[in-house]
Write a structure and sequence with these properties.
Low-confidence stretches: 12-23, 104-111
Mean pLDDT: 77
Largest sheet: none
Strand content: under 5%
Oligomer: single chain
Number of strands: 0
Structural class: mainly alpha
Number of helices: 5
Helix content: 55-70%
Radius of gyration: 13 Å
Number of domains: 1
């Protein structure tokens, strides 16, 4: 659980502090990255009766997309190399968390 929470924190931090990225984030499309990060943020912001259930919820988000914490961490690191892209993706994550429609035109280079 701590590993997953740490990865989530690193991904959030890197997405906002960024620096040369490719078309995909470590094999993860931009839209998948946005959805996963939005789901993780939503779970983080909800009250949970205990940390075990919260960890299971966080883990299930990654499992449902076939991702590991290491893959999400690497995607966030790649995003950190491209500040402009990071800002666009971060805004998309914010919109998704708020419940706004995830519009493809708000994402960059999603194959």
């Amino acid at each position: 659980m701590r590993r997953l929470l740490c990865v989530h924190g690193v991904a959030l931090a890197l997405a906002t502090t960024a620096c040369d990225g490719g078309q995909r984030l470590s094999g993860i499309s931009d839209s998948t990255f946005v959805r996963v990060m939005a789901e993780l943020r939503t779970i983080q912001g909800q009250p949970w009766p205990d940390s075990t259930r919260k960890a299971a919820a966080l883990d299930s988000v990654l499992q449902s997309r076939g991702l590991t914490p290491a893959e999400l961490d690497e995607a966030a690191r790649q995003l950190a190399r491209d500040p402009e892209r990071a800002v666009q993706i971060w805004r998309s994550i914010d919109r998704h968390v708020r419940g706004d429609t995830l519009r493809p035109d708000t994402l960059t280079r999603d194959p």
